[in-house]
Amino acid sequence: MAKGPRYKRPLRRRVEGKTNYHSRLRLIKSKKLRAVIRASTNHITVQIVESSVGGDKVLVSAFSKELKSKYGWNASTGNIPAAYLTGYMAGLRAKKKNIGEAILDLGVFYHRNRVLAAFKGLLLSGLEIPHSDEFFPEDIDKIIKGTHIENYAGIMKKEDPEKFDKHFSGYLKNKVNPLKISQEITNTQKKIESNA
């Protein structure tokens, strides 16, 4: 361990890899609203945050848990389509509060595809966030609509029905057909639009 009069212990969140204080300072100095996207294993959170001297203030928030409780989403709240719907829900709520633009705050960039799906949901809701189209994978539009799940489920059902039942047991238990997940996404998106 380093010793001496000039040694200064780094901040705990920097050591843990949770906060990059240089990029955070740049975001705060911009004085713009931040679109904060955070993903865990089972859920996703999207917030519009205003920074101030006294601390951050959350203006709009959306959680993937709300998809189940308010909009009848029966599939997993930790998958890519759920992330897209959560971002879309947050974007519509921001538009309702007359928030038209923000800058992206990714923090530590875990769960890349789900974070990008939530970001795409924010953009498709009409919120203006500076970005480059090269930031997204080429097939992001298919992924957020769940076609990759449908294709995989179709192949698995043909090749190994027992493995299909085991692999998609969570979907089947909640009466969600993995071969028609895109229809579930469309229905939930319409419910979000009508209630937001």
Could you walk me through the main structural features you see in this protein, from its secondary elements to its overall organization?
28% of the residues are buried. The chain has one domain (17-195): 2-Layer Sandwich (Nucleotidyltransferase, domain 5). It is globular, with a radius of gyration of 19 Å. The protein is an alpha+beta fold. Helix 4 (80-96) runs parallel beside helix 5 (112-124), helix 4 packs parallel to helix 10 and helix 7 (147-159) crosses helix 8. 48% of the residues lie in helices and 12% in strands.
Task: Please specify the SSE layout and strand pairing.
Layout: H1 12-15, H2 21-29, E1 34-39, E2 44-50, E3 57-63, H3 65-71, H4 80-96, E4 103-105, H5 112-124, H6 140-144, H7 147-159, H8 161-167, H9 169-173, H10 181-195
Parallel strand pairs: 1-4
Antiparallel strand pairs: 1-2, 2-3
* Major sheet strand order: 3-2-1-4
Report the sheet-strand fraction.
5-15%
Termini gap: 54 Å
User: How does CATH name the architecture?
Assistant: 2-Layer Sandwich
Shape: globular
The share of residues in helices is 40-55%
Q: For the record, what CATH class applies?
A: Alpha Beta
Q: How many β strands by DSSP?
A: 4
